[in-house]
Amino acid sequence: MSVMYAVSVIILLVLSPFVAKCADEEESPVRVYDQEKFDAELPKNPHFIKFYAPWCGHCKALAPTWDILGKKYNIDLKQEVATIAKVDCTVNTELCSSQGVTGYPTLKFFKPEQDHDKAERYRGQRDIESLTKFVQDQLDQPEAKEDEAAAKVEETEPVDGMYVLQDSTFEKHIETGSHFIKFYAPWCGHCKNLAPAWADLAKSFADNGRVTIAKVDCTEQHDTCSKQGVRGYPTLMWFSGGRMIEKYSGSRNLESLDDYVVQKLADGDAKEEGTEEKVPHMKKTEIKSEGSLLIGTTDNFEDIIAEGTTFVKFFAPWCGHCKNLAPTWKKLADAYSANPYVKVAEVDCTEQQPVCQKHEVNGYPTLLLFINGEKKEEHNGGRSLEILQGFVKDHGLHDEL
């Protein structure tokens, strides 16, 4: 017995450090915030916050690194320097919606002196070195330099007729007049081939006064390219009066591009003279469906959401999460097939870019609830049939006969 007892003691002594280590690992140094803590703590000091969903694979992969970052700033350094926190979006749906969270994880840096909607979104690598550098850059960046840089961006002038647009200048640039814009990536071979012709096109119309030729680097200006539904490079779009009118699909030589611009300007002249003006909404557009599921397009979307409650899935066919949701979404449509007040629809954003752009769809799938034509709520919670039905019941109208 004494030999067995001695062996048991030795085993416990050997294993005890590992047992203690496991117990310690269960206590994350990252602060857990809900709406109340979010409102109370953010005015006190800078915060780097992870908005996540427990079921999200990328969130699980980031969790150990986020804990290391939390230990560095929340424990090893003074907490007043910066606080590392996290928000579970399946629980705090309204908070995440107010922060524009459409994909997981979303990482945002908040400064106490700034409005919450001006938080800096992190889009870099998710290793500890990159995350730490980002935090330090945010902490070390004087507000005067930020203001100076912002002013410099706003004052960007064309070079040889070419406008280089950024997230901060894009919307203001397109709100009036006509614009032919190239969305590209520097590493893209087709973009490199197009570059000389695009530069010559800009020079040709530099003094036109009615159209600008511009370009957007999508590796740097993520928000703009996402909002415009850019899925490949180069993408060429014609904008007029603040909205995207048409995606160019013709040849990419200078002559073809030049002819296109001339034709679009001529079309604009004809419409101003009333020669091609059509009477809008003479009749409702055709609405197609797959069983009980309505298929939304740019032409029929307003008619679909005009009356009652409409729950809409904005998706891309290549999106894995969209594919997983598809069978449940059809079941949801079937569940409301006999209810005249509730409709379930879907919109393919790779085909119907204008409507997705209008409703600021930045990730897939995006689930939006409309009531009598107005967008009311975004669903950021679980995607089981029961949860989706519960969302309609909690936020919609006339969900039961």
Automatic annotation (TrEMBL):
SUPFAM superfamilies: Thioredoxin-like (SSF52833). This is Thioredoxin domain-containing protein. The keyword Signal applies. Pfam families: Thioredoxin. NCBIfam families: pdi_dom (TIGR01126). GO terms for molecular function: protein disulfide isomerase activity. One of its GO terms (cellular component) is endoplasmic reticulum. Gene3D superfamilies: Glutaredoxin. InterPro entries: PDI, PDI_thioredoxin-like_dom, Thioredoxin-like_sf, Thioredoxin_CS, Thioredoxin_domain. Belongs to the protein disulfide isomerase family. Residues 1-22 form the signal peptide. Keywords: Redox-active center, Repeat, Signal. GO terms for biological process: protein folding. Residues 9-140, 144-266, 273-397 form the Thioredoxin domain.
